[in-house]
Design a protein that fits this description.
By secondary structure, this protein is of the alpha+beta class. Helices cover 27% and strands 18% of the residues.
């Protein structure tokens, strides 16, 4: 495996705080699921389905899919 030419680095410490994690989880309504599969037997599909049923907007990220759970699937997080 090669490393990227320009790796992005930033301080992760603020995101390790339990109160910050709790706040994000309680307030976030949009979730990107990397590797979300359209195959209903896959765990990722169930997670996405569950989140949609509970009011979350799911953004599928999977280069092998064009649409999953009624949402356009993105090839990468950069898209």
């Amino acid at each position: 495996m090669s490393t990227p030419a320009n790796p992005v680095t930033f301080d992760l410490a603020p995101f390790q705080d339990p109160l910050t994690i709790q706040r994000v989880l309680l307030n976030a309504r949009n979730v990107a699921i990397v590797g979300l599969s359209s195959n209903e037997l896959r765990a990722s599909n169930f997670v996405g389905y569950y989140l949609q049923r509970h009011g979350y907007r799911v953004f599928p990220v999977n280069p092998r899919e064009t649409e999953t759970l009624g949402e356009k699937s993105y090839a990468s997080l950069l898209d």
